[in-house]
Amino acid sequence: MFEPGIHPTAIVDPNARVDDSASIGAYAIIGPNVTLGPRVRVDPHAAVAGWTDIGEDSRLWPFAAVGYEPQDRSYGGWRAFVRVGARTLIHEGATIHRGTNEDTATVVGDDCMLMNNAHVAHNCTVANGVTIASGAVLAGHVTIGERAFISGNAAVHQFCRIGRVAMIAGIARARRDVPPFSTLSHDTRIDGLNIVGMKRAGVSREARTELMHMVRVLRKEPGELKTVVARLAGEVSTPEAREFAEFILAPSKRGCGAFAPRDTRE
Questions:
Q1: What is the tally of helices (H) and strands (E) in the chain?
Q2: CA 187 to CA 183: how far, in whole Å?
Q3: Can you give the pTM of this predicted structure?
Q4: Pairing of the two strands 105-108 and 81-84
Q5: pLDDT tens-digit map of 197-255
Q6: What would the mean pLDDT of 135-158 be, rounded to a whole number?
Q7: Domains and CATH numbers, the chain
Q8: 195-198 long-range CB contacts below 8 Å, 24 or more apart?
Q9: Residue 213 — φ and ψ, nearest 5°?
Q10: Residue 203: CB partners within 8 Å, gap ≥ 6?
């Protein structure tokens, strides 16, 4: 049961800003530049360091570590941030590292869940409602769209973009961008659409139909991906289909993967 207060064995720096309604468990460690919002719960043996803000009603389970130095040899100890939104759940052994350049930030939004041993590296931006399952890891500078799902033990390459409501399969390696509403299970090959996720997110039947048409064309039609998508963008009317096209057409350091033939996926 949630009870506000600080356990007498916890180590809380006097300069930390801890809301009176927060709870800090036994042997937890809270550093001097940390801010814990209303009703934040830090369980026993969890640790929060650096210039880190944790939003209201979020929780850290035992041995979670948030705000420590990035795993980057270029980091020089300067000020950089972690910002975690409201109602985000950070489970056992999960880690979120601060930005690697001065005054940059790693950001995790509202209503996210990091399962046990998940890792969010420096300068990632994780939007609201994202789930990062057990053992999944994000390299530096990854961007994850709203309500995306990163399955267990998956790995996302640095600078990749994962679109809204996309799904990465368990043990998969995302080495290129994954467009919104898409699924990926093999490195750079987009499998198809996350139909279940789209329905749960309230995506209309009309939008799902347009997206399915776009994917069918991309599977069959030869040619440079952006050229084909640019043509398709002029044929669709729903916001989701336009979002899909705009994501692929946007500048990217990694580029999007190819769409797998239907007979080998789904």
A1: 4, 29
A2: 11
A3: 0.95
A4: parallel
A5: 999 999 999 999 999 999 999 998 877 899 999 999 999 999 999 999 999 999 999 99
A6: 98
A7: 5-141 (2.160.10.10), 200-264 (no CATH)
A8: 197/147, 197/149, 197/165, 197/166, 197/167, 198/165, 198/240
A9: -65, -45
A10: 165, 181, 240
